[in-house]
Design a protein that fits this description.
By secondary structure, this protein is α+β, with helices and mostly antiparallel strands. The chain has 16 helices and nine strands. It is globular. Belongs to the cytochrome P450 family.
Length: about 450
Amino acid sequence: IITIDTPLEKSGPVFRSGPNELSFQSFQSLHDIYKAKEDKVGKPNTWKIFSMDSSDPTILSTLDDGEHAFKHRTISTMLAPGVMRNVEQQILPYIATFVDRLGESDHDIQDLCNWLSFDIISDLLYGESFNLLQLPELRWLPEAYTAMSRWIMTCMVQPKVKLLIYLYRIVPVFQSIIKLGKWTKQRSFTRCAAGAPRDDFFTLFQQAESKHTNHSYTNKGMWTESVLLLAAGSDTTSTTMGALFFHLFRNRDALNKLTSTLRATFEHESEIVSGPELANCVYLHACVREAMRLVPAVPNLSPRVVRSHELVIDGCHVPQKTHVGVSLYSLNRDPKVFEEAEDYLPERWLSTDGQRLNLELFKSFGVGPRACVGMNLALLELTLVVARTLFRYDVTSPPERVSPNGRSESEEDYCQFTFDAWAVASARRSQVNTGCFVERASR
């Protein structure tokens, strides 16, 4: 049995992962597949599952390259580097609340990461936050999105499973997804009716129109896009945030080095904002990259279909209509590329070869025209959250969970991306529901 975590020595650089599907595991194949021209490679029909209504596709589900380009231009308007300073001012209050909650609540830190990411993306999307960090009423949303994500991933692997949707009246998971669809539709239509311009995505949707391709957003199209953006802007970021905390808390040397660097660079927590000082914290960025290498938010194949008569992928001639893809999870653990590939070693990005790694091998946001449009926002959130958290708090691990070399004796199976063996302690050092302790730093 070959899975995404099967060692490359066993599976080889390319193997048949389905009746009409090839899985490649090389950086050259990543380039050949995802940077190929649209007449050579495209998205298969299985991507249509990423829209609540197939008649109004999202930026992720559309198979039309022209429509994707229109949606990408629209969404990237708010996420371009030149406007991220305004976005930063919108998200800083939520990050401050997150850091405060770490020292006063008994919630699992992964829950706090989930709530933070939803609060941020909902503000950017609707112009008002869901406020999950403060209020419990909407905390069912992350669980509903998890259910929907599992359903979508299952359908991507086995499209015929979609026929089970007709059992929605008796299968609980469908009830959760239906509730999510109805709630987000009402929220979207209410925002559309408001009309007043705000600094949010809905304002961009309403104003967007392509003079060349006649593309625009309908009210239903704004709803389907908003459902996707809520997931893309929350689940992937919180997963990476959780992975970053997970590995830092279990690698004492990296944690201490990063904490010392941050406290030597900044005098006050309020100074930790985007700018030269934060950009020069190269070890912080190395820690983020290393977490994303080990735990890519999208670990599975991102399937494409060969449109041309034949396509050469990393030296292999692939016939037309074949589904192809690359698993970042497998690729990022190739021992021929990354020494000690299974270990969390931020220093690998700072070595004499680190510049090459940064330019050639950091592909966690994808490559090509359909690469992640939210990269700038995700990196901003990750760096600000981790930097402010470690600036304020000291982190220690219970002795029974740490081995002599400073690493956990039994790490969670992070391929599942669940990090529920954590805990946080307040400034009074009272233990709460976790696997790590966080103490207020004395300065």
